[in-house]
């Protein structure tokens, strides 16, 4: 429990070149938490973005207060896993929210995560694009096919008990995330998968909430042959080692 | 707490499962001394692994196809996001963001 007995939610926002999106995400987060009445803080972990993200973050800190916006930058691009670890060191909440800072994840789902967590006393609540009225915007048929195909193979091989493994919009109990970060070694998409797989191994409970994923950067082609190959390699590694 | 299944890797579970089914099939379908099923049964069992593989292939295609067809397109979410972005920019400008 956080100090005072009430829940506090620490949102970890690793950023790289998010000068445009960061203030919008922070504004939406602040409004969402104010409306829901939950205590929160936003930890911005910027990896030395050359586009001025850090300056924007400092302005946001002035606007919202340094108790709500915590700046914990790093010198250069060091990867998502270490960004979470770095961010968590400064988190004073008893729950951690991880999400993308590029507006593909909308903060409006966070109160639903919180509700779901209380409903089932879950250790982890994972946003899913594949169940209920979850979905995506901005993906063509090919992208959707790759996504569904990869997810199917993952379900068959790993039987993970969660419908969306590569998603990165989740709520964790702080101690659960800390424990998982110690054990996870993969990178990229596989890292998010490994978290769920290890969580199941350790007996943690996972709830799901349908979310919509609004992809505005797909035009810049994030999914090449290399990514698919490294995904498959990572998947087979998890298959053989967990 | 670790469940008993979690102690074995997924690969290990698959190999165990395949070994079990494989040896059962081999014992029943192939001509082994000691255990001799009548010929019609053996002939029926012999192609079973291939049938199961093909059936699984069909199931996979059907499942992925169905999931692809029912993959939700979040039009409203995109529209709503645009509205929120507009509101956010206006409010932040008011609060002094440059």
Automatic annotation (TrEMBL), chain A:
Q: Which domain of life is it from?
A: Eukaryota
Query: What InterPro entries does the record point to?
Result: DPM1-like, Glyco_trans_2-like, Nucleotide-diphossugar_trans
User: Boundaries of each Glycosyltransferase 2-like domain copy?
Assistant: 10-180
Q: Which reactions does this protein catalyse?
A: a di-trans,poly-cis-dolichyl phosphate + GDP-alpha-D-mannose = a di-trans,poly-cis-dolichyl beta-D-mannosyl phosphate + GDP
The cofactors it requires, by name, are: Mn(2+); Ca(2+); Mg(2+)
Q: Name one GO cellular component term.
A: endoplasmic reticulum membrane
Q: Top-level EC class, please?
A: transferase
EC number, UniProt record = 2.4.1.83
Signal peptide span: none
Query: What GO annotations for molecular function exist for this entry?
Result: dolichyl-phosphate beta-D-mannosyltransferase activity; metal ion binding
Q: Which GO terms describe its biological process?
A: dolichol-linked oligosaccharide biosynthetic process; GPI anchor biosynthetic process; protein O-linked glycosylation via mannose
Q: Name one Pfam family in it.
A: Glycos_transf_2
Q: Which UniProt keywords apply?
A: Endoplasmic reticulum, Glycosyltransferase, Magnesium, Manganese, Metal-binding, Transferase
Where in or outside the cell it occurs: the entry states:
Endoplasmic reticulum
Which pathway does the database say it acts in? Protein modification; protein glycosylation
Subunit structure comment from the entry = Component of the dolichol-phosphate mannose (DPM) synthase complex.
Biological role: Transfers mannose from GDP-mannose to dolichol monophosphate to form dolichol phosphate mannose (Dol-P-Man) which is the mannosyl donor in pathways leading to N-glycosylation, glycosyl phosphatidylinositol membrane anchoring, and O-mannosylation of proteins; catalytic subunit of the dolichol-phosphate mannose (DPM) synthase complex.
What family does the database annotate? Belongs to the glycosyltransferase 2 family.
Q: What is this protein called?
A: Dolichol-phosphate mannosyltransferase subunit 1
**What is the source species?**
Nyctibius grandis
From TrEMBL, chain B:
**What keywords is this UniProt entry annotated with?**
Endoplasmic reticulum, Glycosyltransferase, Membrane, Transferase, Transmembrane, Transmembrane helix
InterPro entries found in the cross-reference section: DPM3 (IPR013174)
Extract one GO BP annotation from the record: GPI anchor biosynthetic process
Q: What is its main location?
A: endoplasmic reticulum
Instruction: Mention any one GO cellular component term assigned to this protein in its UniProt record.
Output: dolichol-phosphate-mannose synthase complex
Q: Which residues cross the membrane?
A: 45-62
One GO molecular-function entry: glycosyltransferase activity
Q: Does the keyword Transmembrane helix apply?
A: yes
Q: In which pathway does it act?
A: Protein modification; protein glycosylation
User: Where in the cell does this protein reside?
Assistant: Endoplasmic reticulum membrane
Q: Which domain of life is it from?
A: Eukaryota
What's its membrane topology? Answer: Multi-pass membrane protein
Protein family membership: Belongs to the DPM3 family.
Tell me the function of this protein. Answer: Stabilizer subunit of the dolichol-phosphate mannose (DPM) synthase complex; tethers catalytic subunit to the ER.
Oligomeric state and interaction partners are given as:
Component of the dolichol-phosphate mannose (DPM) synthase complex.
Task: Return the protein name.
Answer: Dolichol-phosphate mannosyltransferase subunit 3
């Amino acid at each position: 429990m956080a100090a005072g007995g009430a829940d506090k939610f620490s949102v970890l926002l690793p950023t790289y070149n998010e000068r445009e999106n960061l203030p919008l995400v922070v504004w939406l987060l602040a409004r969402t938490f104010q409306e829901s009445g939950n205590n929160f803080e936003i930890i911005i972990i910027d990896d030395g973005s050359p586009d001025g993200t850090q300056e924007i973050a400092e302005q946001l800190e002035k606007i919202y207060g340094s108790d709500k916006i915590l700046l914990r930058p790093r010198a250069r691009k060091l990867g998502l896993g270490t960004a979470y670890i770095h961010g968590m060191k400064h988190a004073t909440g008893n729950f951690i929210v991880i999400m993308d800072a590029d507006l593909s994840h909308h903060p409006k789902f966070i109160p639903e995560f919180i509700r779901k967590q209380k409903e089932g006393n879950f250790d982890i609540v994972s946003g899913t694009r594949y169940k209920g009225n979850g979905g995506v915007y901005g993906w063509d048929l090919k992208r959707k096919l790759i996504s569904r195909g990869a997810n199917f193979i993952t379900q068959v091989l790993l039987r993970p008990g969660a419908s969306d493994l590569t998603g990165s919009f989740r709520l964790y109990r702080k101690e659960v995330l800390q424990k998982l970060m110690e054990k996870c070694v993969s990178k990229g998409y596989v890292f998010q998968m490994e978290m769920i797989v290890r969580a199941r191994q350790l007996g943690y409970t996972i709830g799901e909430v349908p979310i919509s994923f609004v992809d505005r950067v797909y035009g810049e082609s994030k999914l090449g042959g290399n990514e698919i190959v490294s995904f498959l390699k990572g998947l087979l590694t998890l298959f053989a080692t967990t | 707490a670790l469940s008993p299944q979690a102690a074995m890797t997924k690969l290990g579970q698959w190999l165990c499962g395949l070994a079990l089914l494989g040896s059962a099939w081999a014992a029943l379908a192939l001509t082994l001394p000691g255990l001799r099923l009548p010929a019609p049964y053996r002939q029926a069992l012999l192609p079973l692994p291939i049938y199961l593989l093909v059936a699984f292939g069909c199931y996979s295609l059907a499942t992925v196809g169905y999931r692809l067809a029912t993959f939700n397109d979040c039009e409203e979410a995109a529209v709503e996001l645009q509205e929120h972005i507009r509101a956010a920019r206006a409010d932040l400008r008011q609060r002094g963001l440059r």
